[in-house]
Amino acid sequence: MAYQQGLNQQQKQVQKLAMTQQLQQSIQILQYNAEGLQQFLQQKSLENPLLMVHHSTPDQANFSGSQRRVDNFMNAIPDTQQSLFEYLLEQVHLTMRDTPLRDLVLFLLEQVDLNGYLRISDDEIKAQTGAQSLQILDAVTLLQQLDPPGVGARNLQESLLLQTENDNHAPNLAYIVLEEDFTNFVERKWAFIAAKYQVTVAEIQHIFDYVQTLTPRPGAAFSQTQNTFVRPELVVQVQADQLQLSLTREGRPQIVFQQRYFTRMVQTNDREVTAYMKEKKQEFDWLQKSVGQRSQTILRVGQEIIQRQHDFFFDAKRPLKPLLLRDVATKLNLHESTVSRTVNGKYLQTDFGIFELKHFFTNAIGNQKDDSAASVKRQIQELIDQEDKNKPLSDQRLVNLLSAAGVTISRRTVAKYRESLGIGGSSKRKRFD
Questions:
Q1: Same domain for 214 and 97
Q2: How far apart are CA 170 and CA 14, in angstroms?
Q3: pTM to 2 decimals?
Q4: Are residues 234 and 216 in the same domain?
């Protein structure tokens, strides 16, 4: 049988959406808390003459009397911005089961600097933890899958690769160019790269423009300290045995289109003015759609939370069931990072207080699906509150009491939960009066 090898050319057309500034802002809009969104819209109203924002005050919100009383003073509570470490730690506890691999990821978190880079080598990890190479690889991979994209990288190139890999709208060849020709790409040897991959220099320029939208310091946004205020975007009302959830005015800001001004300006004979007005009209339409999608996403996630944490609103002890970000993400067909952005900095108002949405996510203790970390912490708090201060309960004694109540937990975990509650050891709690 004769063997023949032939070469031919095929033209293939692939439709792929590049990450535009508007798409990036849509993601950012979801991540804003109420205060941040208000500031963002205010800035947009200054840039766009067709856009006007109706601001609401707490007293204007459509609450019942009891809700309004809570909101009047609760909105003034300062809320300190999370650090990068706290944000990453929260994601680990809400997405990963309690395993040795998670412990290794927690160790790696402590080695991430303020810019989001992992500043420890594999050899140093082995020396300090005794972990094997495959375990280290798995732990680093899990770390690098956390939000924000690019975190956990060892250098700039790896950070850009992680951000590109996480972006479904990245240009074609962007990842492989960054991986295989990073130096040539940075040195603008684009003709060489274009010839290598048989594309035009314009396509390499497009990749460069895209990379310019990425961040060289994925953790830098968390290093800024500022004071914000708690502004609930969701309110839940208990009616008989039913829960009714709705958006507050903070959760659905009103964006008004200046129709009269637009009509008058587009009727002029100046083409530049007409083109400018149409551009600003498109910007308004996009902004209105993005803000609307943000509100609906928060409402959907909130509804799923109150369904799963039904007992929290009816039981005076406020018990929480184990709930992970992935549970809600799977049910609502959303990405985990979308749920993470949705619950971070968003608040739910009840008749008995205001709670951040992420408060309702908690991991299970070991294999006990009915015991959440928050529930066990509450039991530890109650046991310590009721102890004899002349003879405080040791951690082992707490383990025994919890075990008698049907909760199997290690002494190490009890100590960790006790410390997270800000409670000292038994020797520090002892009183002599």
A1: yes
A2: 13
A3: 0.49
A4: no
